[in-house]
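Weekly structure sync, notes
Attendees: PL (lead), two postdocs, one rotation student
Agenda item 3: pending single-chain targets
PL asked that the sequence for the first pending target be pasted directly into the notes so everyone works from the same version. It is reproduced below exactly as submitted, 193 residues in total.
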Amino acid sequence: METRSIMIVGVGGQGSLLASRIIGNVLLSQNYDVKVSEVHGMSQRGGSVVTYVKYGDDVASPVVEKGEADIIISFEQLEAARYVQFLKKGGHIVTSTQQIDPMPVITGAAKYPEDIIPKLQAKGVDVIAVDALTLAEQAGTSKASNVVLMGVVSTKMQFDEAVWQRALEQCVPPKFLELNKKAFALGREAAAE
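Predicted structure, written out during the meeting:
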């Protein structure tokens, strides 16, 4: 199998580490060679964070180059726009509609761009946008928006839902498991709409 690439982009504190752990678990359970990069960027709350996941028969490096990502998972829509050049032709962006103001916007030096998702779609980018924050709150906590997005992503990959459920069971602490399973299910439902 040719090597495939996934990028997880967001803002520090949004749970990209858990998301990469869940995806890595799914891929390893299917006997792929998997390389996951360390989180790059400012992982404290507010800084841009990027994680690379590559999988296939034999993967040399986890780094994803421009034009190489099969899927970009974005926890915040400005991050989707920031990394769109990494998307492969025919790839997908799965993004939350959430907006988190970066420091230049907070300080008044810049304005948050308008209509990010429609502008990406107008360029021919396949964008699956869901209100992951609201769905996570429906599941029981705003902190589960990363797992809502995993539910959406699971519909874009060829693995059975049971494989994803096992990954959740292995990666999420037991006391948060049911809540996260609900968030995951809401993400799958949103992708089907």
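Discussion points:
- The two ends are 31 Å apart (CA to CA).
- Strands lie at 4-11, 33-36, 40-41, 48-56, 69-74, 87-96, 126-130.
Action: rotation student to compare against the earlier draft before next sync.
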